[in-house]
Amino acid sequence: xxxxxxxxxxxxxxxxxxxxxxxxxxxxxxxxxxxxxxxxxxxxxxxxxxxxxxxxxxxxxxxxxxxxxxxxxxxxxxxxxxxxxxxxxxxxxxxxxxxxxxxxxxxxxxxxxxxxxxxxxxxxxxxxxxxxxxxxxxxxxxxxxxxxxxxxxxxxxxxxxxxxxxxxxxxxxxxxxxxxxxxxxxxxxxxxxxxxxxxxxxxxxxxxxxxxxxxxxxxxxxxxxxxxxxxxxxxxxxxxxxxxxxxxxxxxxxxxxxxxxxxxxxxxxxxxxxxxxxxxxxxxxxxxxxxxxxxxxxxxxxxxxxxxxxxxxxxxxxxxxxxxxxxxxxxxxxxxxxxxxxxxxxxxxxxxxxxxxxxxxxxxxxxxxxxxxxxxxxxxxxxxxxxxxxxxxxxxxxxxxxxxxxxxxxxxxxxxxxxxxxxxxxxxxxxxxxxxxxxxxxxxxxxxxxxxxxxxxxxxxxxxxxxxxxxxxxxxxxxxxxxxxxxxxxxxxxxxxxxxxxxxxxxxxxxxxxxxxxxxxxxxxxxxxxxxxxxxxxxxxxxxxxxxxxxxxxxxxxxxxxxxx
Length: 565
What we know:
Layout lengths: L8 E3 L2 E3 L14 H4 L11 E3 L2 E5 L2 H12 L4 H15 L9 E7 L4 E6 L9 H6 L18 H12 L9 H9 L1 E2 L2 H14 L8 H7 L11 E2 L2 H13 L2 H5 L1 H12 L6 H5 L4 E3 L2 E5 L2 E5 L6 H12 L11 H21 L10 H4 L2 H8 L19 E8 L4 E7 L8 E3 L4 E3 L29 E5 L2 E9 L4 H13 L5 H6 L3 E5 L2 E5 L4 H9 L3 E5 L7 E7 L5 E5 L6 E4 L1
Parallel strand pairs: 19-20
Antiparallel strand pairs: 1-2, 3-22, 4-12, 4-23, 5-6, 5-13, 6-9, 7-8, 10-11, 11-16, 12-13, 14-15, 16-17, 17-21, 18-19, 21-22
């Protein structure tokens, strides 16, 4: 493609504006303009110099801040925040979760894949023999080895400054002595109790005993404690998390698995390991956007940004049908490719480099017109989650995410431990020829993705939007809102969001301009309105300012906030 080449897309005689590739001027970020918030004048971003913590629960934020005040770094703060979230927000994560992280150490970016693998006895044939055409979402079958405890340990081993046991202290305090349940957490807890009421067999008894009070969810403001959770956290702190994988805790997990029809074995737990990975990236305007490589779905966000980069989004208002339409269409194409190709790279070759090529993005971009499309995968080879971010005075920054998936996960709690096991195996395919087909020891397609932004080789900061398959959609929307429309992190998170469901079906938050909804319908989109909620993702963002201070925001769709020192 020549230096003067520009794409020209038309439909029914109408042109869709595309930037000439040689004429994409770098965006100059105007921080003075960006400090305003058109979506919530009372929600200002947090600006601090010595460190910031942002996540979805206030008590977890304070746990991270406490570590910074004790002299810990951003990794210490992130681990303490993550551990505390297992106690104060059990509706989204737990000790039996998976986790991923991106860490900027002041000079370069590191990636940690803390997702677990399928048990050796979990085979596609065995699941189909039980009558399943798709992977179940509850019970033992979707349980893969939890990776979060090992991720905490491995992050600390490489980057931590404080004693590992210190990082557990706030969480143990809240688990042992109780904490008042936050309003939005209480709402999701209530939903879960209704959904899990039908789970009555033996393996689910521990969940009901641990997370309900006489069959009901705790209400907002009620004090909830979990002494078993506190005891398990102590054992993890004292053993550097080894007890979970080859100690007494591991034996408890395996014994309960054997007693109730599970497939986890001692060797499955003992052989688990996190994986240090090279983050993947794409350029967007003059920024570099980074994600964890497959088996995570961060690749979807990068493909979508590649497609969008050719459109002159800033010529349209942020809250316009034109901007929403182009973002939706780019995401649909990106997601369709992601669902077709993303899998565990230890088992299949994922064409990551080809999917991220600008030439491939141009081919996909050329499919976009002023009408909603029904997306199909391209051929690049032809040519229930919590998120947190932290930063410290030395410039170290962390983007961290962990999840049980679908709320409380599998519905299985190991008796006497407080360990709620996740259900990430639900994302495996039972199609034997699909790259993401279930196989023993394999990691599934994973929805949780931390993001990071750099510019000219320097860190800008971490970002993330939790929420299942909403996550890459949220990543694209906050990046576009910050870079193309120059809104600060808090305003970017407060802006109305959309999400693609399937085919031409999309949902848009009800606080979006009605003219956008009407305009999208006129273009062939099947639009549903929904109240702003966690179904549209719940995110946090930290950016480093030219002065060296930080500016941060936390999503209005969660209980949390950003705080600094």
